From TrEMBL:
<feature type="DNA-binding region" description="OmpR/PhoB-type">
    <location>
        <begin position="124"/>
        <end position="219"/>
    </location>
</feature>
<protein>
    <submittedName>
        <fullName>Response regulator transcription factor</fullName>
    </submittedName>
</protein>
<dbReference type="InterPro" id="IPR039420">
    <property type="entry name" value="WalR-like"/>
</dbReference>
<dbReference type="InterPro" id="IPR036388">
    <property type="entry name" value="WH-like_DNA-bd_sf"/>
</dbReference>
<dbReference type="Pfam" id="PF00072">
    <property type="entry name" value="Response_reg"/>
</dbReference>
<feature type="modified residue" description="4-aspartylphosphate">
    <location>
        <position position="51"/>
    </location>
</feature>
<keyword id="KW-0597">Phosphoprotein</keyword>
<dbReference type="Pfam" id="PF00486">
    <property type="entry name" value="Trans_reg_C"/>
</dbReference>
<feature type="domain" description="OmpR/PhoB-type">
    <location>
        <begin position="124"/>
        <end position="219"/>
    </location>
</feature>
<dbReference type="InterPro" id="IPR001867">
    <property type="entry name" value="OmpR/PhoB-type_DNA-bd"/>
</dbReference>
<dbReference type="InterPro" id="IPR001789">
    <property type="entry name" value="Sig_transdc_resp-reg_receiver"/>
</dbReference>
<keyword id="KW-0238">DNA-binding</keyword>
<feature type="domain" description="Response regulatory">
    <location>
        <begin position="2"/>
        <end position="116"/>
    </location>
</feature>
<dbReference type="InterPro" id="IPR011006">
    <property type="entry name" value="CheY-like_superfamily"/>
</dbReference>
Length: 219
């Protein structure tokens, strides 16, 4: 899952970013509206956590731009204003959800997962293929009933492959969906992560390399 955190309270933004990364999400962060517009113009995000009161460019304008592009990005608007009128205005701009500060991190994560499901074609909440089971909400993965101890990136890669439903996934797509904007596309980080994931999944192999194209999961 690719997420943008656009929040000018740096301590809050950095805390949310690290928490979401710990859960295996690819998270970019910015602290003003100009930077937020630059990010959404370059990257395809599943969810944008958008502070309504961003400096330089107001969050309302950023929301309008995202909605106007007609893509599948979902907007979770964050604000300190708790009034019903404020919530109605935010949702009226096209935001998909609204969360008032201060908020519980667990609730934020639940809302992000719910919005991400809406940004993709409908899939079951627990993913299955070739004896592999993955529950993104519970952060649980297993193979043939055996629990898997996966790193956040291994978990994210496995989720992308499962959601592809047998389609070949390129290394570039894995970088886009499982790593943040600081990932170096010229390193072998994807190959090494897939290699360690294969070891943890065990035999027989279920993650197959398609030469010159990428990887696919057995179905």
């Amino acid at each position: 899952m690719r997420v943008l955190v656009a929040e000018d309270e740096r301590m809050l933004a950095d805390s949310v970013t690290e928490g979401l990364r710990h859960l295996g999400m690819a998270v970019d962060v910015c602290y003003d509206g100009d930077a937020a517009l630059e990010r959404v113009a370059v990257h395809r995000y599943d969810v944008v956590l958008l502070d309504r009161d961003l400096p330089l460019v107001h969050g309302d304008e950023i929301c309008r731009r995202i909605v106007g592009d007609g893509g599948e990005t979902r907007v979770l608007m964050l604000t300190a204003a708790a009034g019903i009128r404020d919530r109605v205005e935010g949702l009226g701009l096209g935001a998909d959800d609204y969360l008032t500060k201060p908020f519980a991190f667990a609730e934020l994560v639940a809302r992000v997962h719910a919005l991400a499901r809406r940004s993709r074609p409908s899939l079951p909440p627990v993913l299955h293929s070739a004896g592999v089971e993955l529950d993104p909400a519970k952060r649980f993965a297993s193979r043939d009933g055996r629990p898997l101890s996966l790193s956040p990136k291994e978990f994210a890669v496995l989720e992308v492959l499962l959601r592809a439903e047998g389609r070949v996934v390129s290394p570039e797509e894995l970088l886009e969906k499982a790593w943040d904007e600081h990932a170096d596309p010229f390193t072998n980080t994807v190959r090494m992560t897939v290699m360690t994931l294969r070891k943890k999944l065990g035999p027989p192999p279920v993650v197959h390399t398609v030469p010159g194209a990428g990887y696919r999961l057995a179905t």
